[in-house]
C-alpha cells in the first residue's frame, strides 16, 4: 500500500523545479522592489503625506482653507476697432 499520492520521483522533480524557480527569482528581486516602490508612489503621492485641509487657529478652533475666486476684468487696449481696414498692406 502506498503512503502518499505521488511517487518519490515526482517529489524529486518538484523539489528540483522549486530550487530552479527560487534561484531565478533572486535575479528579479530588485526590479520587483523598484516597480513596487514606483507603484506605491503613484498610489500615495508624497505631496499628500504632510498636508491637511484644516488649520488650527490660536484659540484652538479649526477652520477650513478656502481658495478665493480670482476676479477677471477686461483691460482696454490701444488696438483699433475691427471695422477699420488695416493701416499697412
Automatic annotation (TrEMBL):
**Which keywords describe this protein according to UniProt?**
Membrane, Transmembrane, Transmembrane helix
Give the start-end ranges of region Disordered: 49-89
Q: Which residues cross the membrane?
A: 5-22, 28-44
UniProt-recorded name of the protein: Uncharacterized protein
